[in-house]
Amino acid sequence: MPTGLKRDLGLFSTSAIAIGAMIGSGIFILPGVAYVEVGGPAVVAAFLIAGVLVLPAAFSASEMATAMPEDGGSYVYVERGMGPLLGTVAGVGNWFMLSFKSALALVGGVPYLVYVAPELAAWILPLALGLAVFFTLLNATSTESTGRLQFGIVAIMIVVMAWFVVGGIPDISAERTAGAFDATSDGFLAATALVFISYAGVIKIASVAEEVEDPGTTIPRAMLGSLLVTTVLYVLVVYVAIGLVDVEAAIEAGQLDPDGEGPIMALAADSALGTVGVVAVVAAALMALASTANAGLMAAARFPFAMARDNLAPDQFEAISDRFRTPVAAIVVTGVAISVMILTLPLDLVAKFGSGFGIIVFVLVNISLVGFREGAVDDYDPTFTSPLYPWMQLAGIAGGLLVFSQMGLVPIVGSLVIVALSLVWYAIYARSRIDREGAARSGVRQSVTERALEQTADLFDEDRRYDTLVALTDDTSERARTDMVRMGADLSRLRTGSVAVAKFTGVPHRAFTGGGLTVSRPGVPDWLSYDEPPGWVAETDWSLTTAGATALRDPASATFDYLEITAENVPEAVVEFSTFEGYDLLVLERRPEELHRRFSSRLTDHVLKNAPCGVLLVEDYGFDGADEIAVVANRGPYDPLKLLVADAIAEETGAELVLLQAVPADAPEQRRETVHDYHVELMRILTVPARSRVVETDDRVAGLARFAESADLLVTGMESRGLRGDLFGRPGDRLVDSVDVTAVMVQPDDERQPGLVQRVVLDKLFGG
């Protein structure tokens, strides 16, 4: 999307932005703190392992940046890959994280200033605020000047640090560096978590991707090259520093704070390079921390800018200055926020908040790449692709979560607060302004529908016999029993199966009888007697002709059978008989008074929870054939058995099927299109005419009922047959209760009780 931003950041300037963003606090503030955290020289290994753990996110961000060279970086990737909700979390969180880090860098130079000029201690805050204003104005007036300044600062800093390493190696104490690469030390993971934020700048390149020359080549080289350079520099500098400085002694002497915070690099330079070295290192430290603040402000300002383009933030942040071609409003607001943090927040709190959310961002970046690779994104065409996919991304996710768990209570709570603020912002401001979803969600939905289509096609194609048991009781209504037989016969006839009609009667408990079933085959009852076969059954299949006649074929070839069964416990008898005889479908009358009676023992509930086969509940309002049969998807895609039942009844009656599915009124257009396309594919599988109707409604039951009411038959499903359904009701039952239409509720034999996670996922993917 053209925005007017100038592409004037080359490879060296782009690399300098990342190196400058990483190298400041990592070298000059955190080594002493991490040394105390790990309890020894293993801080060197902590820096090395942290760099390795960041590598997957660097590869992921490099790939996505070449496919989407837009300002906003990791926010853009998470928003496009995971959807606007998580995109908001990533955008707001990144903005906070980078603003925190910029504030940390500006205040973090305090110990170095005091070390060389104690009289400046009173000017610390004014100087920090002055630098914040300076960098805000610089970023607002020229991105190109910012990149050139960044390159100059980084070049000087690397030269000084190289001098420090070379000059300090001869004076290293082997005793102080013993165990520097021991990853088994106590507190190692906590130290790794602490220094993790040192590498956050590696993906900041992507936040200015829209201003990078030749992004397809420049971004991967700059991102991966800067990570390699910075990791090597960290390991060498920290190794030399702890080899030169006795950290415990420095703390006792008051040169470092008890937590290790202080000018550790100045102390190391003093012992190896003398006064000139100290001046050079302090100057490099101040430049490096200024560089971090500058790069952080530049990158942070691009997040509200990018969010505004996606309608997740006010339009003012998207405005580009006609004179300077920069997002002035976003830069100014970010500069003000950094100034407020300098004045109000403790240094350690700023660092911990930034670290915690930095890890979350890296995890989200890796997840987003998986979303793009596996999702339905036609125009995702990166110039650079991450190697070892998906194992590298999975390793990055696992490593990030492991490190995050070691951060401690404060950063974890701080991160959760930022997440909560992001969710509130999304709910109040952004949700009503968007009409899209992420690649991962779209991809998962497509995968689910493809799997459902495959299962449906397999069921329709298989040569399987369906034997049906129509279970009657003394409470079964007269109007329902014939239609129950009719519906059971439809499927069994098409599948060359048989239909058994069984009347279950309860008898009082009798001692010493064993409580078993008694099965008999009396004469055919009047309601099943016909002078000639009914129109809904083929003549060659019919053998029940007149009341009182033998009327039953040889059991080996009988299509219909009538039985009477007595038992002390009718619900258990229905399940036991259908299990022993191996029926494929069990047909019962739906009795609303049973279904809505909470926490009681009843036939329907027991059968639905324990039946070994598919179950059909029939609620009859008089079924004399059908011209239109509404087939409703309750959660996610259609269950294949539901479609098979509806298709069989429609073939016997000559009816047309209406595939009826609801999506939220504010659902993204691509979701409606996905559902419609799914219906089109189902129509290719069905054997009868069908059409699609996607209902846009915020009240699923009411919206579906409005269209189902006009049908001659409603075929729907069942769910939540447990405590949750008892407490909060069942959407399928509410739909059937709300229409005066004969209904068939279908429960497949392999999915009687969907789990909570499955219900939530399907609701969010297809209806929520």
From TrEMBL:
<dbReference type="GO" id="GO:0055085">
    <property type="term" value="P:transmembrane transport"/>
</dbReference>
<feature type="transmembrane region" description="Helical">
    <location>
        <begin position="264"/>
        <end position="289"/>
    </location>
</feature>
<dbReference type="InterPro" id="IPR050367">
    <property type="entry name" value="APC_superfamily"/>
</dbReference>
<feature type="transmembrane region" description="Helical">
    <location>
        <begin position="328"/>
        <end position="347"/>
    </location>
</feature>
<keyword id="KW-1133">Transmembrane helix</keyword>
<feature type="transmembrane region" description="Helical">
    <location>
        <begin position="12"/>
        <end position="36"/>
    </location>
</feature>
<keyword id="KW-0812">Transmembrane</keyword>
<feature type="transmembrane region" description="Helical">
    <location>
        <begin position="353"/>
        <end position="372"/>
    </location>
</feature>
<feature type="transmembrane region" description="Helical">
    <location>
        <begin position="409"/>
        <end position="428"/>
    </location>
</feature>
<feature type="domain" description="Amino acid permease/ SLC12A">
    <location>
        <begin position="17"/>
        <end position="415"/>
    </location>
</feature>
<feature type="transmembrane region" description="Helical">
    <location>
        <begin position="221"/>
        <end position="244"/>
    </location>
</feature>
<dbReference type="InterPro" id="IPR004841">
    <property type="entry name" value="AA-permease/SLC12A_dom"/>
</dbReference>
<protein>
    <submittedName>
        <fullName>APC family permease</fullName>
    </submittedName>
</protein>
<feature type="transmembrane region" description="Helical">
    <location>
        <begin position="120"/>
        <end position="139"/>
    </location>
</feature>
<feature type="transmembrane region" description="Helical">
    <location>
        <begin position="42"/>
        <end position="61"/>
    </location>
</feature>
<feature type="transmembrane region" description="Helical">
    <location>
        <begin position="189"/>
        <end position="209"/>
    </location>
</feature>
<dbReference type="GO" id="GO:0016020">
    <property type="term" value="C:membrane"/>
</dbReference>
<feature type="transmembrane region" description="Helical">
    <location>
        <begin position="384"/>
        <end position="403"/>
    </location>
</feature>
<keyword id="KW-0472">Membrane</keyword>
<feature type="transmembrane region" description="Helical">
    <location>
        <begin position="151"/>
        <end position="169"/>
    </location>
</feature>
<feature type="transmembrane region" description="Helical">
    <location>
        <begin position="82"/>
        <end position="100"/>
    </location>
</feature>
<dbReference type="Pfam" id="PF00324">
    <property type="entry name" value="AA_permease"/>
</dbReference>
